Amino acid sequence: MQLGLYIIGGSIVERDAGKLYNTCTVWAPNGSLIGRHRKIHLFTMNIEAAHGGGVQFDEGAVLTAGSELTVVKIGQHKVGIGICHDKRFEELARIYRNLGCSMLVYPSAFCICQGPMHWELLQRARATDNHCLAATQQSIRTLSPVDFDMVEQVRRQITIHQQRRTDVYAKARADS
Ligand SMILES: O=C(O)CCC(=O)C(=O)O
Known about the structure:
InterPro entries: C-N_Hydrolase (IPR003010), C-N_Hydrolase_sf (IPR036526). The protein is α/β, with parallel strands linked by helices and 176 residues long.
């Protein structure tokens, strides 16, 4: 309780009922477990050698995907959790925003083939689309203080969330 810190862990392999999940846990300052996110989008990648890669990856061969969103309260603020590849899915971030989150946190470890191109881009995209703070942490570091007031300020300045035309989007979806 001394430092009043919340800890959003990296991710670990969790075993439950004979299945393995890629799981991030969230801890309150008093040491209680306040969130557990099981990675929803398992990562697959196939960059053929002919295209300068020769890299294959299939997380689903070993792990089971989670099926629940994870929103934790950090003080008064709601924080949506994703793990690594979850960060690519804008619908997830949008739903977290719709649920009232002002911050998105994605513990992540991208590999070097696409990491340098996409890591920061995705983080900025999720933050900009949703007017949320977005944090992605590749390894353990000291975090700087989080300015939640800035989120409210930015949301007042350009009101994209209120300007959404869900009527138009719904019609387009129905038409397609
Ligand atoms: O989406 C990506 O490009 C990388 C994701 C990843 O490395 C992972 O989810 O383990």
